[in-house]
Amino acid sequence: MKNKQITIMLVALSFLLILGFSTQVLAGETYKMGMSVDITGATSDIGNPYSKGAEDYVKYVNDEKLLGNDKLVLFIRDDAYKTETTKRNFEDFLDEDIVLYQNYSTGSTLALRQDFDEEKIPTITASFHAGNLENCNYLFLPIASYSSQAVGLAEYVVANHKGSNKIKVAMFLHPSAFGRGPLGDVKKAIDIGLPIELVEVVEHGKDLDNTAMLKRFQSKGVQYVISQTVQPPVATMLKGAQSLGMAASTYGEAGKITFLGCHYAGGPDLIGLAGSAAEGFYWTTSYKLMTAKGPGTDAQLALAKRYGRDDKLANSQNYTNGIMVIQVAVEAIRRVKAKSIKVNRANLFEELQAMNGYNAFYPLTTVGPVSFSKTDREGVDTLQLYVAKGGVFHELGAPFVSEYVQKLKK
Fold this sequence. Notes:
45% of the residues lie in helices and 16% in strands. By secondary structure, it is α/β, with parallel strands linked by helices.
């Protein structure tokens, strides 16, 4: 009798062990990531849709089981655009044993890039400052840098300028590393033959009146202004130019000023801020806008609807931006899993560096493929030019890669 009881207990114990093992297998692994982002600070108009895009795509990955039975967790913390807060957030995320990190601002990225290398943690940043990549191996830019964008815009100016007069350009920059980043590369492009004259460089303040600056530009014969900043100061400048009758009604109109801008200087929200003054503003990014119909934009609108987002958020390029950085991370995880090796920092880092050539990643949220290597950690090289017409940004021409950017990279 005693032996029979022992046998029953052993069978029951074996069943419980098997059941526990099966439950563990079904539950799968959990992969943790961290994101520090400005939700309440100076650039919350960008950080809010960015964080919502990231949050929604993580929900989608888990709801649709894109990683099988494995689960993705993204810790999102507000840093209010303060570097010291970002640093604390990052340290807290490390305690959670994250496998990949998503940073936000240029200032905090520059301040923490040595920490990324010391911790050997692959990091994707919302800042496209080319200088982020200097003396840092673990950082990845999702799309073309601000420098690539500004040089690409200057190249477009040259290619489409009418008339034989010298092409005079001014740059309107944010007073920070984020704003100043492209200046050096634009000057280098000029040094190797880009035929423009950089007449003036202005780092804007918080002024609500740009009259003196605009009149100065006009007196110096400036015909094009390239902006590398955020939308509010650009909106102020455009409204000032409109009220003074200085804004070009057609591209390169003689005696008037044509305005252009890099990623964070434009987009649908600029039209909301500047109204009709945004008409004719030329803008570049590597992201697809919702006006460019196709499977990628259809999927984004469906995602936003699925998780209860309003139309403004659904159409924001910064919502797209937040989706895309998670897409890249998920694709790296998927590729590591496909090799039946552990999803950890080291293997994700190696997989990101191998994302090129036939292994490039096509996320459909961008106008070109994501391509990284050991020597190139600037993601999508391709740019799309957009122009504001009738209160909407429309594609202008085909996606392009800047000839002078390629020369500068050699």
